[in-house]
Amino acid sequence: MRIGIIGAGHIGSTLAGHLAGIGHDVALANSRDPSTLKDVVAGIDGPVSAVDAAQAARFGQVVVVSVPFGRIYDLPTAELRDKVVVDTCNYYPERDGDDAELDTDTTTSSEKLRDLTDADLVKAFNAVHWETLRDGGRPKGSPERIAIPLSGDDEEAKAVVSGLIRDMGFDPVDAGYLGGGGRRHQPGTPVYGSELSAHDMERWLHVT
């Protein structure tokens, strides 16, 4: 599969390494010139290239957006329309600036990104520490396998992202639709930053 990744921080570059390592073609972008990713690309074992954000969006059958929430308005929105987009972002007002709709829980950061891009958006990888993502993958059936929550409104898109999560050595757990489900694994929730099994993740996500 062709996968574009916009954002080469800890989560974005770690996902690039995992996905290229299992054979996907990855195009990685940051907010600067692609030449600044030379060392990152050189450190990844697998098919990965450095591009700009618009090229990553056009390239990917799936596109990962892993930028600070405050930078989503810089994204190449036209190129993301109707794509399967994986949103790893979290809203932190001290970093991103205050957003009245998010501060009052009128909507969620992922719903804002979906409305901005008209993408088939799946929220995932936002609740896992990057070190856990880097080192925590385990074979299928391992009792130490860690769960990663995801949410979204498009079932086919969620199935695609769930498959990628499994292939990287984690168990996907569906939290529900983008709004209500996404709220269950945003910062401040019990599962955020956790290292839970799929069974325990399910239990915490669906506590009413």
Number of domains: 1
- The amount of beta strand, in percent, is 15-25%
Overall pLDDT metric: 96
Structural class: alpha/beta
Note the overall shape: globular
- Which sequence of strands runs across the widest sheet? 3-2-1-4-5-6-7-8
CATH class: Alpha Beta
What does this structure look like?
By secondary structure, this protein is of the alpha/beta class. It has helices spanning 10-21, 38-42, 53-59, 77-80, 93-96, 100-103, 109-117, 130-135, 155-167, 178-183, 198-205; strands spanning 2-6, 25-29, 48-50, 62-65, 84-87, 120-124, 147-152, 171-176. It has one domain: NAD(P)-binding Rossmann-like Domain (Rossmann fold), CATH 3.40.50. It is 38% helix and 18% strand. The protein has an eight-stranded mixed β-sheet with strand order 3-2-1-4-5-6-7-8, with helices on both faces. Helix 1 links the parallel strand 1 and strand 2. It contains eleven helices and eight strands.
